[in-house]
Amino acid sequence: MKGCLTVFLSILIAAIAITAGCLKGGNFVYSKGKSLSPGKSLSYSFTGPVHLTVKVSSNVPVEVKIVGDSGVLKDFGEMRKVDTVVQLPKGKWTVIIKNPGNEKAVLDIEIRGR
After folding, report:
1. Is the Cβ–Cβ distance between 46 and 93 less than 8 Å?
2. Which of 20, 41, 58, 91 is deepest in the core (most CB within 10 A)?
3. Which residues lie across from 78 on neighbouring strands?
4. For the chain, what is the radius of gyration of the CA atoms?
5. 65 Ramachandran zone, left/alpha/beta (phi>0; psi -120 to 50)
6. Where along the chain do its domains lie?
């Protein structure tokens, strides 16, 4: 019985970790091993003013931008790694990660507003 409980708890923790990897919201995004097909993009919304920590690493170059109603605030270009803090002014902002290449990107993403 104790072994079954251990297996159940392990599966439950794994399921929580997998779904937590897709958290999206106003303050925090964390995803490890997220797949992004060629030509596809991900977007995560934040509300400013906030200090936004952006950490993205990928096996292939991806485009990373922060855009708002008034246009592009920060364009990091095509990179394999972004690790920076950006001050977002008041308003609604979106971090966009796009795979412009021909092969699948595997991403580790951490975006946190403070």
Report:
1. yes
2. 58
3. 63
4. 16
5. beta
6. 2-113
Which tokens is 27 given? 């303050």
Residue type at 8 in one-letter notation: F
**Topology adopted by domain 2-113:** Jelly Rolls (2.60.120)
* Residue 57, pLDDT above cutoff 90: yes
CB-based contact 97:37 (threshold 8 Å): no
Contact 53, 88 (CB under 8 A): no
The distance of Cα 4 from the centroid of its chain, to the nearest Å, equals 35
CA angle 54, 50, 113 (to 5 degrees): 45
Q: What angle do CA 37, 79, 28 make, to 5 degrees?
A: 75
pLDDT in tens, 2-44: 665 555 545 545 444 444 433 334 579 999 999 999 999 999 9
Please state the pTM of the whole predicted model: 0.76
